[in-house]
Amino acid sequence: MDSDLSDNIDEQAVAWFIRLRADNVNNEDRTSFEHWLNRAAEHRDAFNEVCAMWGDTDLLKSLSISAKVHGIAPKRSKKRYINTRLPLALAACLVLAVSLSGQIRILLKADYSSAIGERKTVLLEDGSTAMLNTDSAIAVNMKDGERSVELFKGEVFFDVKPDPRRPFLVHADHSTTRVLGTRFFVNQRKENDEIKVLSGRVEVSENQIWKDPVVLGENEAVTVYETSLGQAKKLDSKLSTSWINGFLVYENETLEAVMETINRYRPGVVLFRDDSLRQLKINGRLSIRESHDMLKVLQRTMNIKMTYLTDWVVIVG
């Protein structure tokens, strides 16, 4: 089979596999799947391969008529070329499913949250403001003389109203940031927290231990790990701060860094098939007000090949 044609069939098989596992699959979807499956033996081989790689016997049982008619089964019947995109796409499905766990618990604890692709500005009781970046959640405590915020996930930009009697505290997974009045970001990531200051001064410590904190001034940043503090550094990238103005601005940034940032504003995952593209340096500006179009705009302006297995699984290269 021609390689490009094989690639396309494999992509279709993955798309059907994902669709048929969805909770809202309907009879029209199943009928369309039957027509696709009937079209060629290669379609049946590709779909069988996907099910075999996933080990999904339940799906094939639910399609028992198709399985019997077309002889598809949850095992490999013969060796065939497997496109490298199949394991990538299936791994992406697993990652997406796992990432949903714990989200309900976070939302139940949070006072304010933002959806994927959304920014939300909150006016706090003390006159400070908190701007939530995409997919973020916080709880706020302004009682008993305290001013504290717990960041459960995502990133928040704080513009803190000065009050010398009540320091403003932000607790994240690996860090605590203490300020009197300033404008700064706290970004909670999987392995670390990143604190960035636009103006004023903040004290940053790891694990809420006030011993030898790092003091940050204007346009400085620090990364905090589970058991250590990084060194303060100059904030020289617009990519991580420009979102408060509604844009992603990237100057001499790698394609990988820009893709990782874009992916925060859309559901799903972006995977690289061609690793050499990761370090490609690019410049430009994208509007996050149209977050669903950012990948397509980048694809057009950079002339980069992107394959959409579904709306939420995209392969670059």
Notable traits:
single chain, 317 residues, alpha+beta, Jelly Rolls, Phage tail protein beta-alpha-beta fold, 3 domains, 13-stranded mixed beta sheet, 3-stranded mixed beta sheet, 31% helix, 29% strand, elongated
Q: How large, in whole angstroms, is the Cα Rg?
A: 24 Å
Taking the sheet with the most strands, its summary is: 13 strands, mixed
The average pLDDT value, as a whole number, equals 79
Q: What characteristic shape results from the CA principal axes?
A: elongated
Q: In terms of structural class, how would the helical and strand content be classed?
A: alpha+beta
CATH topology of the largest domain: Jelly Rolls
H/E series, N to C?
HHHHHHHEEEEEEEEEEEEEEHEEHEE
The low-pLDDT segments are: 1-5, 64-82, 96-101
CATH C-level class of the largest domain is: Mainly Beta
Q: Please estimate the helix content.
A: 25-40%
CATH architecture label of the largest domain: Sandwich
Plain-language structure description:
The chain has helices at residues 3-20, 27-39, 41-54, 57-62, 64-70, 85-99, 103-109, 255-262, 294-302, and strands at residues 112-113, 120-123, 129-132, 137-141, 147-159, 168-171, 175-179, 183-188, 193-199, 202-206, 214-216, 220-224, 233-234, 247-254, 269-272, 281-287, 306-310, 313-316. With 317 residues, the protein is an alpha+beta fold. It folds into three domains: 3-99, no CATH class; 114-234, Jelly Rolls; 242-316, 3-Layer(bab) Sandwich (Phage tail protein beta-alpha-beta fold). The strands form three sheets. Strands 1, 2, 3, 4, 5, 6, 7, 8, 9, 10, 11, 12 and 13 form a 13-stranded mixed beta sheet that branches. The chain has a three-stranded mixed beta sheet with strand order 15-18-17.
